[in-house]
Structure to design on (157 residues):
């Protein structure tokens, strides 16, 4: 995996994680900022200087959700969030812990392939859904503890 030393003209990398467990993927509803509050995303965040994308994702999932996860592989595509900031998605597996809303989110859901369209995704996250659906189709097993975690049981979208 590549390190993330940037030159001044290279974008800063943001990683999002398709965290898979038992054929389901974790979706997180943003609580802030206002422009995206109430919309859904794959959790993650900005890579720090010297971090690989995989290391950044694993650190961000621990910080945001309190779980240990392993980044498996990068999914196809990259999206410019704003000038100088590029979003890339990774498949990840849950190693330890139960996801909790520690930062930036007010609801979590484990979604199966047929439920991916049930939430109002942030646009960049919506664009990676075909790749996530393929991951889920390939994943075997049932999802223990599948369902909703959070204040609201109502889907937005």
């Amino acid at each position: 995996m590549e390190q993330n030393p940037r030159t001044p003209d290279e974008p800063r990398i943001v990683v999002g994680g398709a965290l898979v467990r038992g054929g389901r993927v974790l979706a997180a509803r943003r609580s802030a900022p206002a422009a995206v509050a109430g919309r859904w995303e794959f959790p993650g965040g900005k890579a720090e200087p010297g971090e690989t994308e995989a290391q950044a994702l694993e650190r961000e999932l621990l910080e945001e959700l309190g779980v240990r996860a392993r980044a498996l592989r990068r999914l196809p595509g990259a999206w410019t969030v704003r000038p100088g900031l590029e979003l890339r998605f990774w498949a990840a597996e849950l190693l330890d812990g139960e996801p909790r809303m520690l930062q930036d989110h007010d609801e979590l859901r484990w979604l199966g392939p047929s439920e991916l369209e049930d939430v109002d995704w942030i646009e960049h996250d919506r664009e990676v859904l075909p790749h996530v659906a393929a991951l889920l189709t390939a994943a075997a097993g049932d999802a223990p503890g599948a369902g909703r975690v959070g204040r609201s049981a109502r889907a937005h979208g």
